[in-house]
């Protein structure tokens, strides 16, 4: 029986790289995006390279609880994923003291609340199955304060705390939980900046790190992955 992976925000960047990494290993794919055109393009690309796997896509805005739950319910009609990657997120630069009104709510709902609700939707079944792997895609901004980090950094600090608590709750049920905290990665979030490409990490490097953690024996778990550009943080 084939295994399955659910990756939120899987049409671009790190999420897309993780999907292609696991698809190449024969995993069925479950993902979501706000944009149906991006989901259709992803499906076409996956079918071209991995015609034998199942691909399930769902249009959802994960800043909205009702759409997070709708996505989870739709997936549960098909499977309980073996791997859950909470990857969807949004970055809006700004300082706490004067960032635009609404930034806090949007980033907290997208970067933290969606992870909370989606994870809770699957934990009961994973516990009953006594198996699974949950990755939370954080950021080094959840470890170190940065200028103009604002609410983004707050949300990632909170996500790290959530993931640590989840690890403690689920370890006795043979469910692995890992925090992934990448530094600057060449994704759409950095479009338009005048910084050489070699100063960034590749999304595929983060995907390879996730796969390496997943591939360990049942006796071991990587609790935290911190991965930075070779030339240092941006």
What would you note in describing this structure?
With 234 residues, the protein is of the alpha/beta class. The chain has one domain (4-227): Rossmann fold (3-Layer(aba) Sandwich). 42% of the residues lie in helices and 16% in strands. It has helices at residues 13-24, 36-49, 65-76, 103-129, 150-170, 203-214; strands at residues 4-8, 28-33, 55-59, 83-86, 132-137, 175-182, 224-227. A 7-stranded parallel beta sheet has the order 3-2-1-4-5-6-7, sandwiched between helices. The longest helix is centred in the middle third of the chain and has 27 residues, at 103-129. The protein starts with a strand and ends in a 7-residue tail after the last strand.
Radius of gyration: 17 Å
Number of helices: 6
Strand fraction equals 15-25%
Name of the level-1 CATH class = Alpha Beta
Structurally, the number of domains stands at 1
**Shape by Cα distribution:** globular
SSE pattern: EHEHEHEHEHEHE
CATH superfamily: NAD(P)-binding Rossmann-like Domain
Order of strands in the sheet with the most strands? 3-2-1-4-5-6-7
What's the total count of β strands? Answer: 7
Low-pLDDT ranges? none
Characterize the biggest β-sheet.
Answer: 7 strands, parallel
Helix content range of the residues, please? 40-55%
Please tell me the CATH architecture by its name: 3-Layer(aba) Sandwich
User: What structural class do you assign from the helix and strand content?
Assistant: alpha/beta
- Global mean pLDDT: 95
Quote the CATH topology: Rossmann fold
| Distance N to C terminus | 43 Å
């Amino acid at each position: 029986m084939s295994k399955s992976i659910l990756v939120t925000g899987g049409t671009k960047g790190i999420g897309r790289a993780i999907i292609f990494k696991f698809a190449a290993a024969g995993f069925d794919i479950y993902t979501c995006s706000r944009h149906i055109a991006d989901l259709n393009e992803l499906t076409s690309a996956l079918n071209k390279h991995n015609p034998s796997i199942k691909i399930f896509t769902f249009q959802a805005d994960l800043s909205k609880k009702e759409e997070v739950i709708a996505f989870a319910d739709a997936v549960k009609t098909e499977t309980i994923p073996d791997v859950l990657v909470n990857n969807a997120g949004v970055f809006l630069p700004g300082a706490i003291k004067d960032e635009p009104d609404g930034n806090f709510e949007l980033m907290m709902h997208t970067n933290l609340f969606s992870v909370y609700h989606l994870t809770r939707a699957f934990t009961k079944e994973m516990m009953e199955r006594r198996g699974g792997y949950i990755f939370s895609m954080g950021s080094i901004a959840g470890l170190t304060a940065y200028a103009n980090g604002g609410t983004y950094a707050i949300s990632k600090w909170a996500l790290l705390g959530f993931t640590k608590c989840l690890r403690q709750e689920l370890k006795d049920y043979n469910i692995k939980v890992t925090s992934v905290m990448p530094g600057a990665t060449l994704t759409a979030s950095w479009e338009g900046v005048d910084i050489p490409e070699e100063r960034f990490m590749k999304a595929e490097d983060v995907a390879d790190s996730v796969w390496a953690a997943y591939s360990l024996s049942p006796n071991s778990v990587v609790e935290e992955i911190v991965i930075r550009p070779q030339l240092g943080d941006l």
